[in-house]
């Protein structure tokens, strides 16, 4: 049996926030957007349909609740939840808060411009805000 391991590129582009019942929640290192990546802690998956039915429901529960909380907390105009996997094939879900005045609007954030690194202070603040939101989720 293969064990869960985070793809090297995801590990390089993110920071750990928390482990949810199914997913590892990661902060995307791009200060332009409130952006979390959820990675189901299951080995060798690239597609949602490869999850069990229960895990699929849990994935959307985690993404939906987190996205709703983030949209409120960051006063978002739109919530983007997406699985792409064209560059990183490991199954992962992007949860991104969008604002009408963000640099990519209305285009997708993927492949638009360059990621803007967090300053150490802003990174700590964002990690703390998102970790606090995650603590309030009811993911049973």
Question: Can you offer a commentary on this structure?
Answer:
The chain has 3 helices and 5 strands. With 140 residues, the protein is of the alpha+beta class. A 5-stranded antiparallel beta sheet has the order 1-2-3-5-4. The mean pLDDT is 95.
Spatial separation of the terminal alpha carbons: 26 Å
The number of helical segments is 3
CATH class category name: Alpha Beta
Strand content: 15-25%
Characterize the biggest β-sheet: 5 strands, antiparallel
Second-tier CATH architecture = 2-Layer Sandwich
Report the radius of gyration as a whole number of Å: 14 Å
- What is the CATH fold-level name? HIT family, subunit A
H/E element sequence: HEEEHEEH
- Low-pLDDT runs of 5+ residues are none
How many strand elements? 5
Tags for this entry?
single chain, about 140 residues, alpha+beta, HIT family, subunit A, 5-stranded antiparallel β-sheet, about 30% helix, about 20% strand, globular, HIT-like
Task: Detail the topology: elements first, then pairings.
Elements: H1 8-13, E1 14-19, E2 23-28, E3 35-40, H2 53-73, E4 78-82, E5 93-98, H3 120-136
Antiparallel strand pairs: 1-2, 2-3, 3-5, 4-5
């Amino acid at each position: 049996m293969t064990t869960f391991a985070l793809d090297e590129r995801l590990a390089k582009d993110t920071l750990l926030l928390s482990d949810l019942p199914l997913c590892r929640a990661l902060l995307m290192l791009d200060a332009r957007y409130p952006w979390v990546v959820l990675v189901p802690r299951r080995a060798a998956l690239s597609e949602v349909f490869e999850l069990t039915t229960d895990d699929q429901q849990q994935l959307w529960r985690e993404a939906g609740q987190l996205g709703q909380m983030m949209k409120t907390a960051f006063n978002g105009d739109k919530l983007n939840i997406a699985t792409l996997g064209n560059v990183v094939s490991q199954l992962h879900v992007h949860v991104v808060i969008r604002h009408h005045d963000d640099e990519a609007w209305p285009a997708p954030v993927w492949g638009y411009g360059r990621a803007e690194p967090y300053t150490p202070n802003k990174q700590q603040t964002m990690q703390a805000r998102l970790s606090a939101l995650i603590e309030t989720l009811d993911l049973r």
